[in-house]
Specification:
Blueprint (H helix, E strand, L loop, with lengths): L2 E6 L5 H10 L12 E3 L5 E6 L4 H7 L4 E5 H7 L4 E5 L5 E8 L14 E4 L2 H10 L5 E4 L15 E6 L3 H5 L2 E10 L1 E5 L5 H22 E9 L3 H7 L7 E4 L5 E9 L3 H11 L2 E7 L6
Parallel strand pairs: 1-3, 1-4, 7-8, 7-9
Antiparallel strand pairs: 2-3, 4-11, 5-11, 6-9, 6-10, 12-14, 12-15, 13-14
The chain binds adenosine-5'-triphosphate, 1-O-pyrophosphono-5-O-phosphono-alpha-D-ribofuranose and magnesium ion (MG).
Amino acid sequence: MNIRIAIQKSGRLNEDSLRILKECGIAIDNGKDQLKATARNFPLEVFYLRNSDIPQYLVDGVVDIAIIGENLLVEKGGSIGVVEKLGFSKCRVSLAVPKSEKYASLEYFQGKKIATSYPNTVQQFFDQRGITADLHVINGSVEIAPNIGLADAICDIVSSGSTLFKNNLKEVEVLLASEAVLATSPKISAERSAILDKLVFRLKSVLQARQNRYVLMNVPNDKLKEVTAILPGMRSPTVLPLAEKGWSSVHTVINKDTFWEVIDELKSAGAEGILVCPIEKMVL
Ligand SMILES: Nc1ncnc2c1ncn2[C@@H]1O[C@H](COP(=O)(O)OP(=O)(O)OP(=O)(O)O)[C@@H](O)[C@H]1O
Ligand SMILES: O=P(O)(O)OC[C@H]1O[C@H](OP(=O)(O)OP(=O)(O)O)[C@H](O)[C@@H]1O
Ligand SMILES: [Mg+2]
């Protein structure tokens, strides 16, 4: 019995999806034109599919799980579950208007024509706020619409904002934040759920590891108290004596986002020779 996972065949999610499965220790032969592959060392079958088709495959139970952008799940709605946020392909779905427009509030959109690939998301956002707009659905290059007179405004994915900038648009409302997630079919069987649990366990240890760094440093013994008070660590730091008398080696784990601030504090408190190493897996 295999669990069936859908990943994007080509596009933004493809590479990172394969990478995270690989980091979970799952070996997949992925020939370029293959539509299906079986993992060599885990009960997993990979289906390479069009991004926009994946939600329906999940709903129908043709696949058990998928790696997909949250934004697409919101748009397609329904019964698909999310078991884990994966931390990549971060973006937002936003409304944007021509740069030259004066924008004060949502009222701006009343009666306006809006081009979007996410009509349900926009419709729901407006319905909840009492705005009636005319939605025009297009599947790509949405940002060009106002420039060619197809619409007054747009709603699309924004990440760096450079596509908006190039098209003389400005972001005025954020509807939702999105990242890649591991999604589940409502029809997944108990037997396959048990395999999913094993996969999620591995994913969590990979995601934790990505978020943290293993840090080693040398500290004079009379500064140990001060230094260890700064360290967050999983429990408490490991302190080992160095061959040189009066010195210790201190080991700990630090979140990569708070890392630089902590390093500065550690240096001022007397830590020296600070080494920072990546962590491959982290099981809590
Ligand atoms: N500029 C971006 N930055 C970060 N993430 C993005 C960006 N654009 C899209 N994404 C995320 O990646 C997912 C896949 O995007 P991609 O452009 O590869 O496919 P698509 O154009 O949305 O869909 P399809 O494969 O159906 O044409 C999106 O659903 C979204 O979650
Ligand atoms: O804010 P930015 O960093 O500029 O990213 C946003 C752009 O990225 C996506 O397009 P993509 O490149 O995936 O092209 P597509 O329209 O063909 O999907 C999205 O549809 C936006 O157009
Ligand atoms: Mg795209």
